[in-house]
Structure formats: structure tokens, C-alpha cells
Amino acid sequence: MDKGIVQIYYGEGRGKSTAALGTAISAASEGQQVIVIEFLKGKHEDELAFLNRLEPEIKFFRFAKSDESFESLSEEAKQEEIMNLRNGFNYSKKVASTGGCDLLILDEILGVVDENVISVEEIRDLFESKSEDMTMICTGRVLHDEIRPYADEIYNIAPEK
């Protein structure tokens, strides 16, 4: 297997998650094991039901439990959601360090950093702990400058019109 890389899709434009999912479908069609862990995505039952039909070739995990956006939660609800998001991040670390798949997609993980749920240092440690042949894709709107050096490829998805 080829050496894995870290890709980041970020920006204000739409399509970051879609691009990552396209890569997941391509990898799965080649017989690779794919895990997608979604953060801060909310509950879209129709979307989730459709994505679950792609299993077992692509495994999906969603750790956020709230129907509301993270920013609009009460402080008490935010604390509970932070625990859920940290559980998702801990699962990500386990998958990355054990080589639990060929392609690991962390959808909206950059938003979790932006919300100060996990630190830039924790993301750096995650990137450094991934198995050598695993490819990792991270998505989100904001890319902190401190994360840039740890990515092999960075794509800024922005609207033109």
C-alpha cells in the first residue's frame, strides 16, 4: 500500500464533506477500509439513513447528539456535547494509531478545534500518531495556521459567485 497522507478541505464554500465522501466511495470501490467520523453535523435523519446504506464498505460514526448547532446550545447542553465530541475524538485517535482503516475521514473536526473542544496540539498529535499507510482527510470552515505544517495537502473550498 502507498504511504498515507493528511489532506485538509476547508473554507466557506460548500462541498468539503461531499469531496471527502467522494474520496471515500472511490477508496471503498478499490477494496480499502473506510471510516467516516462526523463532528458538529447535527441530525439529518434522511442523510444518515442514506449514508448507512453504504455500510459495511464505508463505516459512519456520528458523535454529536444535539439537534441544534453547537453555538446555540445552553452552557449545560454544551458541556454534554463537548463530552460527546471528545469521545469521537478519542475514537479517532484509536483508529488512527491502530491503523483501523485505510482512509479515515474526520468531517468537521476543524470546527471542533475552532470551538476550543480540542486543541491544535491534540490535532497535531493525532496526525503524528496515524499509521504510516493511512490517509486522513479533515474538513471544516476554519484552518488554524498552526495546523498547516502537519498537512500534506490543503484545499481551500471557496465560492466564486
Briefly, what is this?
By secondary structure, the protein is an alpha/beta fold.
Polypeptide structure, described:
The structure is a single chain. By secondary structure, the protein is an alpha/beta fold. The chain has a single domain (6-156), classed as P-loop containing nucleotide triphosphate hydrolases (Rossmann fold). 39% of the residues lie in helices and 19% in strands. The N and C termini lie far apart (40 Å).
How do the helices and strands follow one another from N- to C-terminus? Answer: EHEHEHEHHEE
Distance between the ends: 40 Å
| Number of DSSP helical runs | 5
If classified by CATH, what would the architecture be? 3-Layer(aba) Sandwich
Domain count: 1
- Share in helix: 25-40%
Mean pLDDT over the full residue set: 90
Low-confidence stretches: none
Decide which structural class fits the backbone.
alpha/beta
Radius of gyration: 15 Å
The CATH class is identified as Alpha Beta
CATH topology: Rossmann fold
Indicate the topology:
Elements: E1 6-10, H1 16-29, E2 34-38, H2 45-52, E3 58-62, H3 75-98, E4 103-107, H4 109-114, H5 120-129, E5 135-140, E6 153-156
Parallel strand pairs: 1-5, 1-6, 2-3, 2-4, 4-5
